[in-house]
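Onboarding guide, step 5: your first structure request.
Type a short instruction followed by the sequence, for example:

Predict the 3D structure of this protein.
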Amino acid sequence: MENHSTDDIQRLQEKLNRTDRELALLYEISSAMRTTLDLNRILYIILTGVTSHTGLGFNRAVLFLVNHKERCLEPKMAIGPESGEHAQKIWEYISQSNQHLDDLIKEDKVAQNINLSTLFKSIKDLKVPLGEHNKNLLACAYNDGIHRHISEDQIGQYADDILLQIFKTNELIIMPLKAKNKVNGLIIADNLFTKKNITHEDLKIFSMLANQAGLAIENSQLYELVMHRSHTDSITNLWNHGFFQNQLSKETEDPQKLNHPISLIIMDIDNFKKVNDLYGHQYGDLILREMGTIIKESSRENDYACRYGGEEFSMILSQTNKEQGYGIAERIRQKIEKHHFSTIPANHHHDLKVTVSIGLATFPDDAKTNEDLIAMADKAMYIAKFSGKNQTCLAQ
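The system replies with structure tokens like these:
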């Protein structure tokens, strides 16, 4: 009886110690998530908490977020080694250097690892449509709002699933991320290299972490929405003048970008006063909106299309030299010249073509500061205007 009592006490002590570690882990990860509203950093903290030795300790993890516009789940970030040998090297390094969660989630680590892993590259194109009719693992976990643990005995039943066609594993957990009872994402995690079984205790602590993660993601998305609206022009839906000034300063002052040219386009709608006089300011706004759509559709992923003010627009072309910038400017100018503006009333028969005059300057060739770059592009634009309009002029 005495031995049985001692065993009970020992088991209770072990349970208390485990609970203490779990609470400490949740507190540490939750505290880290509260330090930022940047979505990529939050996602990195979450996945580091799932995979690190000081966290849940899973070998690999992929995080999907809901894309409400396209009504699908899409992968946003992944953390995991490329092979068992790679995993062993990582774990040995972390163990020997005695790194804690704070060390693993430093900002430079986020920049180094975001979307660069082989795991993410293998799964980045997997967009999973949502809807009651979709019966794949990810869609079912989203629709049901409860985690799915696919054990080693069950994994063979799902060999044809869209996820397991890419994410090869012997056992996995799919954990929904929730905010206010709505699923806003999923995490897929496994132990491909260690072959460690996923236990009930793993699921319990993972669920608690997921609840914190879902709220952190929602807060970040709401913050990004508010920030986007505050930096967006209401008529054209392009970035506004304040964002333009701020972003151009970042581009020209970032040490990592000093060896890459930055081209700046400033364009002005020709004869816009005549447009307003003929059709009224209401139609002038409609033309500005349509112009904004053309410019946005013509920009590349790393470009910034902005409404500079009035009938003027600007584009910051990252890592773009003068020759490349001129090609982009000319394509936009010609596209606008050929475009039929549907907003112009059909009952007006005035022969009015909507065209733009464009000025282009390149950093650091034409200017050493963002203020001088703007001045040079603006001057080139006025030369284009006074030289006959509907043309692109380079800064001299």
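Each response can be followed by summary notes, for example: The chain has two domains: 2-229, 241-394.
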